Amino acid sequence: MSEQEPLRSALYEKHVAAEAKMGQEAGWEVPLVFSGIAEEVRAVRSRAGVLDISHAGRIRIRGAGAVDLLERVCTADAVHQEDDTALYTLLCNERGGVIDHGHLLRLADFWVLVCSPPCRGKLLEHLQTVAADFDAQVDDQTGKTSQIAVTGPAAPELLDKVLPMKVSSLPPLAVRSGSLLIARYIAARISCSGEWGMEVILTSMMASQAWRFITQKAGESRLPPVGLAAADVLRIEAGLPRYGCELNETIDPMTAGLERCVDFDHDFIGRDAVAKIRDKATARRLVGLVLEVTPSGKPATGAIPKQGSAVKQDGVEVGAVTSATYSPTLDKIIAMAYVGRSAGEPGSRLDVTTGRGDLPAVVKALPFLSPK
């Protein structure tokens, strides 16, 4: 396959048949919109929806030295992670910048690191390089598997009606694995929206059948498909970081407000650099911004800031927008931004540069919506 040809998930034909608006992300051709962004967001917030997130990276780590490798590369405490759980972690460079973030799924015999789509290649190379010092094997499972997410307040009840195992009683970050028609699957209680969520990794040969059943054949329990455009709105409403927006190799965990993901009691790559940043307080902080403009049911033309748009206080630039969107849930234009520490107190009034000029905004502590 040439570099110009996009990757496609096993569900590509299903998305085309559903007349989804397709687009490009991290070298993949993905479904951006099915019925409409606002409609899909509201479906997830009020009931539930299903997403094809097969473009996420899935890297398997195994071998006698796997836990030692993970202790070295993960900021979270992978050594004490229990079997059948998911652990949110960062991976840093020596300067403390974030190489990527993701969920580490621990099974009895191996781990799976679910990582950001644009970071899969460099992260695979990073892990394989470090693994040379340990008795560990690292291999990419992305092309052999698919990943489907079901999320929303009604999702557990609906899934209980159609799945062979009861999932509503699973606690957050629980992981279960099993076989369905001899095909193995891994199910993790993790969320991409701030609502109840479950993500399932399964063989690509089974993905089409599972998708068709969930979206068409499950009777009253069937769920609407949700595109990645709505998924990004859900993410921003939930205050969740995205690599390339809130995270990159120049941003450290402390500045990103992700200190909860860092265990300083083990020697991970970048530990000393991150510890120094922790001890002197960061110059910037990640905050939410609610623009004081009335969308009137839809975004006002040009009023949504772009990534990199200036954030100002009394006419002086104090930060920049990382993500922004119209929130159908709040009927507000919202943004995430890094701003100077003194300018980031909740309730502070700032201005944000947009296509309609500088618009007033109020600082809000993240997330915009209370987590479920």
Question: In a nutshell, what does this entry contain?
Answer:
With 372 residues, the protein is of the alpha+beta class. Helix content is 21%, strand content 33%. Strands 14-17-16-15-18-19 form a six-stranded antiparallel β-barrel.
Describe this structure in words.
The protein has helices at residues 12-17, 37-46, 66-73, 120-131, 155-162, 204-217, 228-237, 271-280, and strands at residues 7-8, 21-25, 28-33, 49-52, 57-62, 85-92, 98-106, 111-115, 137-140, 145-151, 175-180, 183-188, 197-203, 284-291, 310-313, 316-327, 332-340, 349-354, 357-364. With 372 residues, it is α+β, with helices and mostly antiparallel strands. The protein has two domains: 1-282, 2-Layer Sandwich (Gyrase A, domain 2), CATH 3.30.1360.120; 284-366, Elongation Factor Tu (Ef-tu), domain 3, CATH 2.40.30.110. Strands 14-17-16-15-18-19 form a six-stranded antiparallel beta barrel. The chain has a five-stranded antiparallel beta sheet with strand order 4-10-13-12-11. The radius of gyration is 21 Å and the shape is globular. The termini are far apart.
